[in-house]
Amino acid sequence: MPFLVTGFEPFGGQHHNPSQAVLGLLPSQVGSLETTSPYGPSETVTAILPVDSGGVAKELSRLYRKYKPEAALHLGLAEGRALISLERLALNLMDFSIPDNTGVVREDQTIVPGGPLALGSRLPLRRILESWQRENIPATLSNSAGTYLCNQVMYLALSSLPQEVPVGFIHLPPDETLALKKTSPYTPLAVQAQAVRLALETTLNYVADRFRRTR
Amino acid sequence: MPFLVTGFEPFGGQHHNPSQAVLGLLPSQVGSLETTSPYGPSETVTAILPVDSGGVAKELSRLYRKYKPEAALHLGLAEGRALISLERLALNLMDFSIPDNTGVVREDQTIVPGGPLALGSRLPLRRILESWQRENIPATLSNSAGTYLCNQVMYLALSSLPQEVPVGFIHLPPDETLALKKTSPYTPLAVQAQAVRLALETTLNYVADRFRRTR
Amino acid sequence: MPFLVTGFEPFGGQHHNPSQAVLGLLPSQVGSLETTSPYGPSETVTAILPVDSGGVAKELSRLYRKYKPEAALHLGLAEGRALISLERLALNLMDFSIPDNTGVVREDQTIVPGGPLALGSRLPLRRILESWQRENIPATLSNSAGTYLCNQVMYLALSSLPQEVPVGFIHLPPDETLALKKTSPYTPLAVQAQAVRLALETTLNYVADRFRRTR
Amino acid sequence: MPFLVTGFEPFGGQHHNPSQAVLGLLPSQVGSLETTSPYGPSETVTAILPVDSGGVAKELSRLYRKYKPEAALHLGLAEGRALISLERLALNLMDFSIPDNTGVVREDQTIVPGGPLALGSRLPLRRILESWQRENIPATLSNSAGTYLCNQVMYLALSSLPQEVPVGFIHLPPDETLALKKTSPYTPLAVQAQAVRLALETTLNYVADRFRRTR
Fold it and tell me: Which pLDDT value is given to residue C196?
């Protein structure tokens, strides 16, 4: 069973999204026979999600049905942040400050009617942060994934994948391509790729540990 | 004749300064026979300046007398900035918001009594910015080097080295070592080193071009 | 029955907290016979909470038992924000980046074991935002009350007061007293007081409307 | 002889400029018989400058010839700043990041060919800062007026008015009108008006003191 990693297409009038670009820098396999999943190393499958609030749930379902992922990591761009941020939770709320790529704007709407207000990440957050710290990658733990598409995907993922599947969201800051245009703080794409790879490996190790403990 | 590059020791209670750390990552020679100085590649000599407002002028004089540099690039840390910034000018003004490492605080004092209010960088600013752009390194052109030690060194350098010697200042942002402690925006030290190396090469090419034109 | 408004004592080495100072600028009564509560204008009672994670729950209980408030508005300082922010929700999470005033630091702890991950504000958020907009007070709707004492109090209030009691939290930015020391963005205390007064009135009008509709 | 105060028309696609709006809140006279100018209180005359790099010098000349001001205070908007900032100096440099209102963009051009790189403010900077501090108005002393129209006007004013005429520049942050649109940090327009009035009075007191000392 593969590890699914998704990014988003560009939005907001831009022509580049680091969460899309980073997918091409990920290894096709993560983990090793000894340290990770009981089944050996895990294949990485990647997909690019549309910034389409009305269509993204269907696309996610299709991907989950197709790949039956062992774990899922969703990635998105947070333009106003300087560091990679690991999201703690998703809110059952859509409140857009800019339209999505189909022109839809939502205000104070739920994602899953009747669902809980918040769902917590199912990634091993502290372990991932430590893996970044060890490799000298500055990052933060975030208490809000916003109320736009990123949060919507994180909430949909947490409500639709089985409870035992690790799933979570990382917000990526602008990379050098965006920073060269807007003179904003950034984290180099190569560092972003390294951070995502570490998050994948750490999550697989966590799955393997859990498997061993429960055997 | 060498290219002098200086950084500063840590200050403000910190134990690390990227402008010092970056010196160890610079090549010992920059430029090549064909493209740069008429004398061939230029040796790089580095030195670490004390954050000592009363003593730094003497230390600079000593370095200039010892090395008779062909060009001088001074580096310092700008904690509140996210990107590498190339300084346009230095002011004849010291106005410290924190003490230097000897406990001295200066308010509204001149650096060189009777000197002009501002002295412009003698580096090829636009060429350096273009060299960074070509290598995808986000950076800014800055109109203020502040009123602390960095500005003091830039002003002293511009007033004491001969007019034909290219001299200027680059403010470096926090690197990963500082950002891991303070969760601030940063630019990786390896990128900072690449930017400094490009600035050295670009400056030597500029010197060589000038030499050829005036021959 | 009164409207309870609380602020916090200073913390983090400071000697001033706008959430405390603003309490002295509030009117002793809010609302009028016609427009608000069925019982006529509501008395405002204020209290200052300790920045004491271990003791604040008990102090809140004492206040709720003593006053049996018709509505409760809790206030706190958000040092890094420039504008008044109305919190949407509280998380069942304590994760402190600085100790509280008793020296306690909590990491990844729940506030109410077994409680939901998030509880939503029971204030009329959009109405309050509109009342501020009408009076030209810039403000934001916030998706995170942090993971320190402010969030703890908001979560405790939402879990312990009866469901029909409107209760919520407003984060106040630095005021002029703090900004004069730290040169930070700020909102004048008088504007903060006006915003809090408008939030109280709007909440009482909302209670009265609800009462009329359900009669 | 009057005290000339100027603001700018809106620019950059906006419909409001606090440096224009604040002019309407200034008193028509500043100072008193005893405390200020030897000639008694000074009349305040105001004017709105065009954001027209090619035409602003002519408009300034016209105003200076018409009013022969005893002192001149020029005001402009600094969108990215949160606090009122008193400029220390103007640079002999135009380098625009956005076009002016006539569509002109300048890159690395001098304002007065052959003029000094920088000219220092002729306002009593420290006295003005103290007058603000006394009235609890957070503010900063700035080392850069930028390289757009604000800096151009400050440089032109300093180079064209007689040396004995106090002249300087204050950058105003967004006011509530702008902050309501862009959710940015701001300083209320009433506070901005109070700060400008204090700067005018302090400057006139300074002129009067100088007159007394030199008599």
Answer: 98
